Amino acid sequence: MGAHDHVLFNRILTDLPQQRTPFFVTAFTLSSHEPFEIPIRSGLQGNDETALFRKSVWYTDWALGRFLRQARQQPWWAHTLVVLCADHGHPLPGNTPYNAPAKFHIPLVLAGGALRPAVKGQVIRTIGSQTDVATTLLRQLHLPTADYRWGRNLLAPVALPFAYCCYTDGLAAVGPAGAVTYDNEAKSVTHRARGVPDSQLRRGQAYEQESMRDFSQR
């Protein structure tokens, strides 16, 4: 699907010194996608699909760690924020159902020399999604966020933590009590954590309706 991850990161290290500052660069890794081919040996055993997936994630982690160690030696590191975020989860290992809430649980890591020492190592447990990343970063820089109407600042207090995610013919709404998933074709709930109120499902449905309306008007 693309260049191996360590090749991509090598290219970034080559290109960044040529960028004007401040710079904004996006890198999208692909080695942990099918067909899970990696260019180096791993210490993991097996050749079935699950084993290949594990090896590919191990390789991505290796390549990212290698990149970060090299990046720390660069003059731009001291004033750079590194944002690490997955675009989605994966059914492997374990063949997680396509609509399982766990499949949508992804990491967001903020790193880099621009972080204040006091916040390094902190874990923020609020509920959020990718739509919140841009808003969160812009708020730290005191820049306008009106263009990101579907995002909120993950570092600010919120009365009702909430996240929406979607999949083919369905949606999930996540709140403090857990997740509820809904099948739009069957018009029925497929999963509901104990204690999730009806209002959380309605909020997820409203989010889906309004976001699709917003998308169709662009």
Write the layout of secondary structure elements.
Blueprint lengths: L4 H11 L33 H23 L10 E4 L22 E4 L19 H10 L22 E5 L2 E6 L2 E6 L4 E5 L5 H19 L2
Antiparallel strand pairs: 1-2, 3-4, 4-5, 5-6
Summarize the structure.
This protein is 29% helix and 14% strand. The protein is built from four helices and six strands, in the order ααββαββββα.
3D architecture notes:
The protein has 218 residues and is of the alpha+beta class. The protein has two domains: 119 residues, Alkaline Phosphatase, subunit A (3-Layer(aba) Sandwich), CATH 3.40.720; 59 residues, no CATH class. Helix content is 29%, strand content 14%. The protein is built from four helices and six strands, in the order ααββαββββα. The chain has a four-stranded antiparallel sheet, covered by helices on one side. The model has no long low-confidence stretch (mean pLDDT 94).
Largest sheet features: 4 strands, antiparallel
Alpha carbon gap, first and last residue: 29 Å
Number of domains: 2
As a whole number of angstroms, the C-alpha radius of gyration is: 20 Å
User: Please, what is the CATH homologous superfamily of the largest domain?
Assistant: Alkaline Phosphatase, subunit A
Write down the CATH class of the largest domain. Answer: Alpha Beta
**Overall pLDDT:** 94
Proportion of β residues?
Answer: 5-15%
Widest beta sheet: strand line-up: 3-4-5-6
**Percent helix range:** 25-40%
- CATH-scheme architecture of the largest domain: 3-Layer(aba) Sandwich
Show unreliable segments: none
**Class per helix and strand makeup:** alpha+beta
Could you please say which CATH topology of the largest domain applies here?
Answer: Alkaline Phosphatase, subunit A
Number of helices: 4
Q: Can you tell me the overall shape?
A: globular
- The count of DSSP E runs of length 2 or more, i.e. the number of strands, is 6
